[in-house]
Amino acid sequence: MKKTLARGLMNLLPMVLSIWLFWSLFISLDGLGKLLLELVGVQSVFVGAGFGLVASLVFVAGLLFSVSPIAWVYGWIEKQLMKFPLFKSVYGSIRDIASLMNRDGEPKTQKTVLVKQANGSYVVGFIMSESAPQPLADALPDGDWVPVLFQLSYQMAGVTSLVKRDDLIFVDWSFEDAMRFNLTAGIANSKAQ
Questions:
Q1: Which residues cross the membrane (predicted)?
Q2: Same domain membership, residue 117 and residue 49
Q3: What domain range includes position 121?
Q4: Above 90 in pLDDT, residue 27?
């Protein structure tokens, strides 16, 4: 009985939580859109009209940001707001996370690697960039150093370490499968591809 309940929970929980999360996001954005419609005196005709308005506004914003003058003005405003330390920290973090999600068309630089530890064990890591930032490269001893992320289990956090490229063992394993392996401490049934 205990195994059956656990199996049911393990299968249903991810689906139910995912649906709930996306439904909550839909309802929130629909409510925001309805509020915007009410501000201009338009009544919402159907459920989802507010969501459609918000999605349309985001699409139009994407089109506008492809126009140089608007992108320049936005960049100038962004630069002015970045002068405030608290805003810079919060906004910078959110912008970095958003840019990680929007990497379409860019080559994926994350490569899965193994790094040997002092005790002979290995840690799964990810090359996040092909070179260390210049200030770090200048401070490090000679060598080809690369930033490697060691993801912590069950967290969206990790440790970035600078490792010599010669000390890395490259693994033919997709970033997504290896990340799933790290995030679940190897519990997830990931198959190497």
A1: 12-29, 49-74
A2: no
A3: 111-183
A4: yes
